[in-house]
Write a structure and sequence with these properties.
67% of the residues lie in helices and 2% in strands. The chain is an all-alpha fold.
């Protein structure tokens, strides 16, 4: 309980941490688009057929979101500037993905039959039943994973922590790979997701993006 109290007090004392509340809006937008948009463009490459369904990738795929939250908290508690860069790249990148979904509604037709004896596969089928194969390109899993790796590798407060960086990057590389082995994404989605992240890296580190925030909002990012 003392750890939770310390976290609450830290948030109260550091107003910039409130930008993390955008996570709630992100989830709302994601589920609304997921349930309302219909795919008009089905994505496919011959490479997709060469990639087998491997159900064990269900584990890293599902650990993706908790890992993102833990990493955001790590940045939030250790360095404001690193945290703001990470937050800006990740959530702006996700917003770009949402805009693309609305303008260019896309989807997949890659899902396969899963044997009843395959427990991870059956768990993945449950995810499929809740998450229709729409709004796939660019991949949110990939965009956020690449952004996490960029943030970890460029963070000032993580200088000298080579082992931590390698571990985080290895995890997110596995997450990216899992998206195609679980038939959640096409190779095209991965390329597009990576491109969004690299674009956001350029915006974050080579433009005065904080000047876009005016008035009371400025204090949250500077």
């Amino acid at each position: 309980m003392s750890g939770i109290k310390k976290l609450i007090n830290f948030i109260k004392e550091n107003k910039y941490t409130w930008v993390l509340s955008y996570l709630i809006l992100y989830l709302v937008i994601f589920f609304v688009l997921d349930k309302t948009l219909t795919a008009k463009y089905i994505l496919y490459t011959p490479i997709d057929d060469m990639i087998p369904f491997i159900s064990i990738f269900f584990v890293p795929y599902m650990l993706w979101f908790p890992m993102l939250i833990l990493l955001l908290l790590e940045f939030m508690l250790k360095d404001k500037q690193d945290f703001m860069n990470y937050w800006f790249m990740m959530f702006t990148g996700m917003n770009i993905c949402f805009i693309i979904y609305i303008i260019w509604p896309n989807g997949l037709n890659l899902r396969v039959d899963v044997p009843d004896s395959d427990l991870p596969g059956q768990l993945m089928k449950m995810i499929w039943s809740l998450d229709p194969p729409v709004n796939v390109c660019p991949s949110l899993h990939v965009t956020s994973s690449v952004t996490a790796m960029i943030s970890v590798c460029t963070a000032d407060h993580l200088r000298g922590k080579k082992g931590f960086k390698i571990g985080v990057c290895a995890f997110f590389i596995i997450v990216i790979i899992s998206t195609v082995f679980l038939k959640q994404h096409s190779v095209l989605d991965l390329v597009a997701g990576g491109a969004v992240s690299l674009f956001m890296e350029i915006i974050c580190f080579f433009t005065p993006w904080k000047k876009l925030f005016a008035g009371p909002l400025r204090k949250f990012v500077e």
